[in-house]
Amino acid sequence: MAKLIETQLGKAGPGQDDVAVGELVTSPAVMKPQHRPLHDPTVTFEEYLHYARNTRLEESSHPPVGRETTAWSLIFPSKSDAGVAQKVGGEKANSSGPNTHAGVSDEEWTNASRALRTATRGACFYLITTDILGPSSLPYAFATMGWGPGITLYTIFAVLAGYSGYLLYEIFLGLDSYEYPVRSFGDLGYRLYGPWMRYLFNFLQGLQLILLVGLNIIMSGESLSQSTRFQLCFIVCCLICALIGMVAGQVRTLQKLGWLANAAVWINLVWVFITIGAVAHYPPNYRGSGASAGAVIDGGIHITPDADGNYPPVQTSGGLPHSDSFAGSVSGAMQAVFSYGGSMMFPEFMAEMKRPKDFLSAMWAAQAFIYFWYMFHGLFVYGYQGQYSINPSYLGISEYRLQVAANTFAMVAILIAAALYGNIGIKVIYNGILMEWFRAPDLTRRPGKIVFAVLIPIYWAIAYAIAAGIPNFSGLTAVATSICVLQFTYTFPPLLSIAFYIKKHAMVDGDGFDASTGRTIRADSGFSRLRRGLLGRRWYANIGNFFYFLGALALAGLGAYSSIEVLKDAFAKGSTSSYVCKSPLDGM
């Protein structure tokens, strides 16, 4: 007979001692989810799994209705932001013992989670397409890689990004519940690897989000300065964009932010079509050739004018062009990788969806949308501008009026994306620091909404100060992106999946969580359990995910190396901060 191991999940109240009976550990009181600390290490994987299954069953019993069931709901999402249907009834829970929500009934606790889940799959579709870093860098990426390698790598990265999203989807559905809601990427790491993984995830995610908000402030400031024909001081342009972002950032829920994201997607398509039309009818912007891909190809000879001032003709390459440095080639390839950097916020998106199961269709639709339009834009512009392709692509337009038009539309889309980054960044800080360390109120309550509103201008002010004060901020962000964003898309999902399926498939008949007694029942422990989980069901997926994880680590290392080399070169050339009046675009 297999050895029976039962682990009591709850902690006894004051003055109550655990009572050991043979090999069973029992307790006089069962601690309910609402009576636990925000991150309780005594909650086992089996308990998370138990409540997650109950939540998925409840969601299935309330299927979507009306327009949310049609394909059109992706393009025209519902305006309703009502949360999941509330449950009523239930007695007040026992308030004895060291807990943070004494006297809260089971229904009140789970209803608080239901109220936060307002986003539909249509809103999620637009949030994903808005979050992705944009198509503007792809012509430059193709110019440094050539037709064949560029198309191949971009397609591979698209498939792998979709696979990573699917892994996060499976893990989220297996661990999230109304009783124990998953609110961030860090929560997934905590439940599978422990506190250290949550701290790592939250730090990397928080760092990247505030840098992205800062970078978007600088980029939108550049666009505004160009639109004013450089008559307005550059640092003032950045300040104006930061103030606009503070106002847009007051949108608290992702469902409401989804309507801004909806607008951003179509605005992005407007400047994409302006760029496509302009490059097809006008020559490249030769004045900006020093910032083009040709500057790192063959010593720049393909962008150097002759004695009469005539620039070389546009050239494209079927294979990998000869670059001045290995770092330059890898840096160009990283632009394609970064186009799929949105996985960093997938758990946050699912956390606010009415039905997280709808995320999968929204994600695949968004990935297909991104792949088609980004690929089309990148290849079209590269075909017409070749080695003169600039990042961002609309700066390669030589006709000033069209360049300003594309720049203006891009600026609006950038600010909306920055509002999304800020929204998630503040929630990471709020849930991971303020609620845990300072007992801040839930965001569904009025005090929590007030604190959130106050944090918005503080967060944007810090992002603005960092972005404007660091020399060559875009270079620093490229390093942080290699270390952060790439990990969340390609490295962390397979790592989390390995732990999730080892724990899940190590369970045998009889294992699980008993809610009536608060016990987790396991047939065995130690190496035999680990081996069964690793080499049992889906052993091939575990092995494949392990090699995927190693490959992603190697890719991240190459990306970090290339970005650091590019940053070092920029510092060697005497880069300055953005606390200046002259716009970086002045003269392009």
From TrEMBL:
Region (Disordered): 86-107
Presence of the UniProt keyword Cytoplasm in the record: no
Amino acid transporter transmembrane domain boundaries: 137-505
Localization: Membrane
GO annotation, cellular component aspect: membrane
TM region positions: 151-169, 199-218, 230-251, 257-280, 359-384, 404-430, 450-470, 476-502, 539-561
Membrane topology: Multi-pass membrane protein
GO molecular function, one term: L-amino acid transmembrane transporter activity
Main location: membrane
Family statement: Belongs to the amino acid/polyamine transporter 2 family.
Name of the protein: Amino acid transporter
Organism: Apiospora kogelbergensis
